Amino acid sequence: MSTKAPERHEFQAEVKQVLDIVVHSLYTDKEIFVRELISNASDATEKLRHTQLTEKEIFDAELELEIQVTTEEEAGTITIRDSGIGMTHDELIENLGTIAHSGSKAFLNALKESGERNENLIGQFGVGFYSVFMVADKVQVYSRSWRTEGDCLCWTSDGSGSYEIETVEGERRGTRIVIHLKDEYKDFAKKDRIESIIKNYSSFVQFPVKVDGDTLKTVEALWLKNKNDISEEEYKEFYKFQANAFDEPRFWLHFSADAPLAINTLLFAPTENMEGFGFGRMEPGVALYCRKILIDSDPKNLLPDWLRFVRGVVDSADLPLNISRESMQDSTLVQKLNKVITKRFLKMLEEKAKNDPEAYDSFWQSFGLFLKEGVTTDFAHRDHLLKLLRYESSYTEEGKTTSLADYLSRAPEGQKEIYYISGPNRKAIENGPYLEAFKARNIEVLYMYEAVDEFVMNHARNFEEKNFVSADSDDIDLDAIAPETETDKPEALDAVASEDLCKFIKEKLGDDVSEVTASERLVGSPAMIVNADKMMTAQMRRMMKAMQQKGGMMGAEPPVKLQINPRHPLVKNLASLHGSNSDLATLISQQLLDNARMAAGLLEDPTTMVQRNYEILEKLSQQ
Ligand code: ADP
Ligand code: MG
Questions:
Q1: In 173-290, which residue ranges form alpha helices assigned H by DSSP?
Q2: Does residue 551 lie in a domain region?
Q3: Which ligand is located closest to the Cα atom of residue 177?
Q4: 178: CA distance to ligand 2 center in Å?
Q5: Is 299 a pocket residue for ligand 1 (Cβ < 6 Å)?
Q6: pLDDT tens digits, residue range 132-186?
Q7: 196 and 269 share a domain?
């Protein structure tokens, strides 16, 4: 074979532009050149495999399909060799001397759009093959095409204006890239260093990757496999590897779609909620891949914030590999991915809730808070999320929950609202005064134990056109919905007496209450505090008070409405007492208010109340 003299070629002007920026940029993420070259090697090998299916005659047909990386630390070189399709003379010129290929082209387009020589752009795009010139002052690409006809060639460049191509002897099929590292980057020629970079970016390359002869542990890209060929055990193992997790996944969602985007996705719901353990806010953990090559291990906008507990992989062949973090996060592509994936995940949860309510309930116990956060922050998915909420109620047993849809299915015809009540726990709610009226009419009330629930109700406002209403609102007309089941009730004060008593109490309580009224809603309790403003529930008052105290503005408590029960013996006695013993009646009125405050969770400092209590006892013991 005759060896011709090396031919010199000028890079196309656009390539020069890219190279100039690559070489002179201060871009810090130098290691991505490894990812770019391994992904090219993997692509070329994959193409060879396809070619084998249709072509009979393939050069070096017996060659093992693998990627070999060797390091020569002394010399400061790295060699990356594949047994892929290789390149012919014209392909070398076309592929490495001009810009026709995806990544670098996108880079150039962005460059044009930005209208200036923007150094930051390289941070936003890998630039494929050319990224190697960030770290190398000389690169040799030996290549032998799969076609039986043709030469072994060596393409050489220092990344400035030109490159050379010459014919060489004895190369096997595929491409071997020898990277001569610049002095300051000789560190990359350390075996450990290269290994850890490959592990990070290229764990799922489907061909064996060897570094200095040792095969790296690569993992099968499970998300690209057919569901039917994957065992439960494999899913669990994959989760542990990919999410670096110590727990098991609760369940997973594995799906592919071709439209509107080509995606393969495998998402996991973990068992443990790390935020619940007080580990601080979780970081998103769904990694973005393009055909098995990592693009970003924790892309920020791939899923809505409230899905940050989800782990797994999204792989889209539609993503340009070279796109990188900054530009990707705002790209419309990522927004589309976000939309598709979120919808599928919600649908999966809905199906779970239907088909395996126990598993869903357990998930809800650990991760319900995230869904609640979603209701308050993500308008687009609110309706969907509301279907996933679960609460205990006056109809459920302790520890059992109901969905809003089931709640409504049980509601009487005339009920136009969804009732809920907040409290620290079931017992507190059931012993408080608010539930009585609902219980007496068999109207279901949802129990809410967490501070965030009030926000959820206020943000969502309604479900299936039924408004959420706190059971401590004052303008609920329960009789319009259903009559009291108990007909044998003690007699109530007459209208005049009860109005008279209300006036007395209001006078004695002064500005502590905005209004005192008699209420038909109470059954076993003498009095309760209700909220005139639906947005200002007891829970909100507590929170506001806490905030005021933190801010040091111990302002006066906002006045409340007091409702008294005209059928309660205590109230009836008080009606006759205030004429004969105004002092004692005043003390009892004040005590009534404090007790009602306590039931609403609004009594901060009990000392006055206790003091007054003694006073009342003292007066009573004198009689
Ligand atoms: P991209 O991979 O986005 O196309 P690159 O700059 O990484 O852009 O590579 C440019 C082109 O060079 C590739 O499209 C491919 O045709 C060719 N190429 C690069 N590396 C190899 C390789 N190891 N074997 C065969 N062809 C390669
Ligand atoms: Mg590439």
A1: 191-202, 232-243
A2: no
A3: 1
A4: 16
A5: no
A6: 999 999 999 999 999 999 899 999 999 999 999 999 998 899 999 999 999 999 9
A7: no
Q: Indicate whether 260 and 167 sit together in one domain.
A: no
In this structure, the answer to whether residues 206 and 236 fall within a common structural domain is no
Rounded-to-integer distance, Cα 361 and Cα 383, Å = 19
Q: Do 187 and 235 belong to one domain?
A: no
| Closest residue by CA, ligand 1 atom 13 | 95
To which H or E segment does residue 277 belong? Answer: none
The pair of structure tokens assigned to 157 is 């460049």
Nearest protein Cα to ligand 1, atom 18: 40
Residues 270 and 416 in one domain: no
Q: Considering just the CA atoms, what is the radius of gyration of the chain in Å?
A: 36
| Residue entry with tokens 């098995």 | 292
Is the entire prediction scored with pTM above 0.70? yes
Q: What pLDDT shows up at residue 139?
A: 98
Q: What is the CATH number of the domain that holds 317?
A: 3.30.230.80
Ligand whose nearest atom lies closest to the CA of 91: 1
Determine whether the shortest distance from the Cβ of 82 to ligand 1 is under 6 A. Answer: yes
**Residues 323, 296 share a domain:** yes
Residue 378 in domain:
no
403 lines ligand 1 (CB under 6 A): no
pLDDT, residue 206, reads 83
Residue nearest to atom 7 of ligand 1 (CA): 128
Question: By alpha-carbon position, which residue is closest to atom 15 of ligand 1?
Answer: 95
Strand-pairing partners, residue 23, are none
Query: 40: Cβ below 6 Å to ligand 1?
Result: yes
pLDDT at 50: 83
Which parts of the chain register pLDDT below 50?
A: 1-2, 552-554
Tell me what pLDDT residue 26 has: 64
Tens digits of residue pLDDT in 466-522: 999 999 888 788 888 888 887 777 888 999 999 999 999 999 999 889 999 998 888
First to last CA, the chain: 127
Q: Which ligand is nearest to the CA of 103?
A: 1
In a domain, 455, yes or no: yes
The closest-lying atom of ligand 1 relative to the alpha carbon of residue 174 is: 24
Q: What are phi and psi of 22, to 5 degrees?
A: -60, -50
Whether residue 296 sits in one domain with residue 174: no
